[in-house]
Structure formats: structure tokens, C-alpha cells
Write a structure and sequence with these properties.
By secondary structure, the protein is an alpha+beta fold. The protein contains 4 helices and 8 strands. 20% of the residues lie in helices and 29% in strands. The longest helix is centred in the middle third of the chain and has 17 residues.
């Protein structure tokens, strides 16, 4: 086989993954489920997205292995949505964001995701990277679905280096994130609240219960 033919054959094997099953988007929360002011945005427009990718994503022991979509990339068996509330009422931005991921990858995988959420604060209570300082702690939440867990994440972003002779990092931004993970049947639900300050208008338990209820409302459609 010639070089050109070999390249054609190799490229033919690279088939883009299909998107999620039709209608799966109907399982996600909508603006009607949230307080007034929240709008659907792309994941790339979430001001806390970079912080979120530090703690959610496959391939690292200190990340929750949920399938968060971004840009034009989508997963086969999961869907996600991001909402943003822009708030500059006090002269400085204190935007709040909410992200949700619903996956249908089987009961064993759903329960394993909850187990991962339980383990993360124990395994990774504090992480120091060149760009960020991250702390995690468990959050007490009533059991929702078949199994559930919640954790809080505080991220401080370093400004790029301390001044000469200093021994401490300087931080130019921070975020507070609350994450709830639920396993219900073959599905899992991840709800993430993000903000510079903890949101006062959205309760993590209440919105997670709404997210799980939507799975029942749309079952069989």
C-alpha cells in the first residue's frame, strides 16, 4: 500500500462519535426551573469554565469523571447545559452560573460517579497547581435518587507570580463551586453551582431535586 493510500485508509477509520440519542435534551433543566434572570449560554461563555475543568473531566483522580460538553464537542450518552446570571448591581461583577450534566451510561457507571464524588474530598482535599489553588470538602445533602453525594470546591487563581523576594502567591480571582451528583436507575445527574460568592437564590438540594424530577417527567418519551 502506498503512503497516500495508507493515509486515506487511516483517516477512514476516524469516525466522529455520534451525538446523544434524540430527545435526551428534554431531560435537562430549563430557565423555567430557575429564578428570573438566568439565561442559557454556551459552556465557553461561562466565566468559571476554566475552574470547572480543574475538577470535572475524565482522566485524573482529582476530577469528577462527568462528561461535560464544550464548544462543538458532544458526548454519545450524555447531555449538558449551562446557565448564567449576570449581576453587576453592586458595581462589581458577581455572576452566578449553573451547569447540569445528564448521562445514561448504565446503573453501575451512575453509582460509580457518586462514589467518585464521595472520594474526591478525601483523596484531594487540597491541590496546588502552577495556576490555581483548590480545596475540596464534602457537603451534607439529603439522599436523592438511588444514591447521591455533594461537595464544595474553592478555587483561587494565581496572578502569575509573587513579587520579587516574596514567599507567598498573589491571587487575582476566586470562585466557589457546589456540586451534587445523583444516581437514579441507569442515569446520573450532576448539578454544579458556581460563583465568586455562593449563590443565595438557588438552593443546591432543591435544584437537584428538580433536575431528578425532570427525568421522571420525561421518562418513556
Amino acid at each position: 500500500m502506498g503512503v497516500a493510500a495508507g493515509l486515506v485508509a487511516a483517516c477512514a477509520l476516524v469516525v466522529p462519535a455520534a451525538g446523544p440519542p434524540p430527545g435526551m435534551d428534554a431531560l435537562l433543566l430549563t430557565t423555567a426551573d430557575l429564578p428570573a434572570g438566568y439565561q442559557v449560554v454556551t459552556a465557553d461563555d461561562n466565566p468559571y469554565q476554566a475552574d470547572l475543568f480543574e475538577v470535572i473531566g475524565r482522566g485524573a483522580p482529582c476530577r469528577l469523571p462527568a462528561e461535560l460538553s464544550y464548544s462543538s464537542f458532544t458526548w454519545q450518552r450524555s447531555v449538558s447545559v449551562t446557565f448564567l446570571l449576570e449581576d453587576e448591581s453592586e458595581g462589581e461583577s458577581s455572576d452566578h452560573a449553573l451547569a447540569e450534566v445528564v448521562a445514561d451510561r448504565g446503573a453501575e457507571t451512575a453509582r460509580a460517579l457518586v462514589d467518585a464524588a464521595v472520594a474526591m474530598p478525601k483523596r484531594c482535599p487540597a491541590i496546588d497547581t502552577p495556576r490555581r489553588e483548590i480545596t475540596m470538602s464534602p457537603i451534607t445533602m439529603p439522599t436523592i435518587g438511588d444514591r447521591s453525594a455533594a461537595l464544595g470546591v474553592h478555587v483561587r487563581t494565581k496572578s502569575g507570580g509573587a513579587s520579587e523576594g516574596a514567599h507567598e502567591d498573589y491571587f487575582d480571582s476566586w470562585s466557589n463551586t457546589s456540586i451534587a451528583v445523583v444516581a437514579i436507575g441507569s442515569r446520573s445527574v450532576v448539578v454544579v453551582l458556581m460563583g465568586t460568592y455562593e449563590p443565595q437564590d438557588v438552593d443546591l438540594t432543591a435544584i437537584t431535586r428538580k433536575a431528578v424530577a425532570r427525568l421522571g417527567q420525561t421518562a418513556g418519551r
